[in-house]
Design a protein that fits this description.
The structure is a single chain. By secondary structure, the chain is an alpha/beta fold. Helix content is about 50%, strand content about 15%. The protein has 14 helices and 10 strands. The strands form 2 sheets. A 6-stranded parallel sheet has the order 7-6-5-8-9-10, covered by helices on one side. Helix 12 packs antiparallel against helix 13 and helix 12 runs parallel beside helix 14.
């Protein structure tokens, strides 16, 4: 794995490496075609971009691969990137799925993002058995941590953390006018949080038939093109889109606000950013981006929660290691199945000898297929129920039958 995240790079650098869903798909298809690559999955969120690759050879430089295939200046920002392999990469992904690597400890959105990345790679035929099993293990680990409800007392999204920080600074939302730009997952989450805090919320929609687009209950809607007209009457403006284009520019905002505008809070939760950072230079504007908000992962409560989560992750990592160590047995188990079906068909020729040649051929083919499936099922059930050494010994004994 090679990646960049909030722990090593600010939003100005991370946004250079942010991928939309379609861009990630094209990148994976290009990388999958490279020599030595068995499978790849690209994960791109507001806080990170990570490329996972299953390779046929050691020493494949993923940074160079990413730079060549995606035309990104990876090597120019080498100090911001981290590379991991083997168990280290697997452990990182599991911790990530559990929310332990997030800016907001225990946040749940990353789990859905990992599943989306896996599904996208599947649709494009970019995965392989190693990545399939690894990502499934990570998702299962994340779900088990979430099921324990270890982080129920923490704010679980950037929106909630942002609003909590504003409240700490004395900014109350009750009866405030708020504008949310974006009606995706993050935009809807923001609108609901603001509404629940007592604010009057308006959401922008881009579609021509905007009346057909669902927005959170209790919120008003305006067309995206009318946002600057609404801003002067707002106390807070929040933008969270997946568009690569800016939603708020300094010049247009200054013209819309006019002279003597009220004090306003602008929150930009998008990566790449939605708001031109120069708007912070305007009088009465407080601008925050996604790097302005995080939870205290070093608190005593967070430390206890983390330890409980790590127990679950250690078990899942052990299961992953068991699978890896048993991988070499899979071809041998398949060979045992083929040998068993071959012997069954040889013995059945005594029974099928009286049949016509074509009937005999069809029956033996059906027996061969059925016998191999039955033996495979038995062996894979043993694999799931036995320890590594027990399974290895079992396969060795079965192999002796046909030597």
């Amino acid at each position: 794995m090679v990646g960049i995240d909030h722990s090593s790079a600010g939003v100005k650098i991370r946004e250079l490496f942010a991928f939309t869903a379609s861009q990630a798909g094209r990148a994976m298809e290009q990388i999958k075609q490279r020599p030595g690559v068995r499978g790849c999955i690209l994960l791109s969120t507001c806080n990170r971009m990570e490329l996972y690759v299953s390779t046929e050879q050691e020493g494949l430089c993923l940074s160079t691969l990413l730079e060549e295939c995606c035309q990104l200046p990876v090597m120019e920002y080498a100090s911001c990137f981290q590379a991991r392999d083997g168990e280290d990469a697997a452990m990182h992904l599991m911790y990530l799925a559990a929310g332990l690597k997030s800016r907001i400890l225990g946040e749940g959105q990353i789990l859905a993002q990992i599943k989306d990345a896996l599904n996208r790679a599947r649709e494009l035929y970019c995965t392989d058995p190693v990545l399939e099993v690894l990502f499934r293990c990570a998702v299962t680990a994340g779900k088990e941590v979430k099921a324990k409800e270890l982080f129920v007392h923490t704010d679980t999204s950037a929106v909630h953390v942002a609003l909590a920080k504003l409240r700490q600074q004395g900014f109350t939302l009750e009866n405030k006018n708020c504008l949310v730009i974006g009606n995706g997952v993050m935009g809807k989450t923001a609108a609901l949080a603001l509404r629940d805090a007592g604010a009057s919320v308006t959401v922008t929609v881009r579609q021509y038939r905007s009346g057909m687009v669902q927005i959170p209950p209790g919120c008003d809607r305006i067309h995206y093109g009318e946002r600057y007209e609404r801003i002067p009457e707002c106390d807070l403006v929040l933008s969270a889109t997946v568009s690569p284009n800016l939603t708020i520019r300094k010049e247009e905002l200054a013209r819309a606000r006019g002279a003597g505008a009220r004090k306003q809070v602008f929150i930009d939760l998008a990566v790449p950013r939605d708001m031109e950072e120069e708007i912070a230079q305007l009088n009465g504007v407080d601008l925050y981006d996604i790097d302005s908000f995080q939870t205290d992962a070093a608190s005593a409560q967070a430390s206890v929660q983390r330890q409980e989560a790590e127990k679950i992750l250690s078990q899942k990592l052990a299961e992953w290691n068991d699978w890896c160590e048993c991988r070499d047995l899979i071809p041998r188990m398949q060979q045992v199945g083929r040998q068993a079906s071959k012997e069954l068909c040889w013995r059945m020729r005594r029974v099928t000898g009286s049949l016509h040649e074509e009937e005999q051929r069809m029956l033996l083919e059906a027996l061969d297929d059925s016998a191999q499936k039955v033996v495979d099922k038995i062996l894979y059930t043993l694999r799931d129920g036995l320890g590594r050494e027990e399974l290895r010994r079992c396969v060795e004994v079965l192999e002796q039958i046909h030597y």
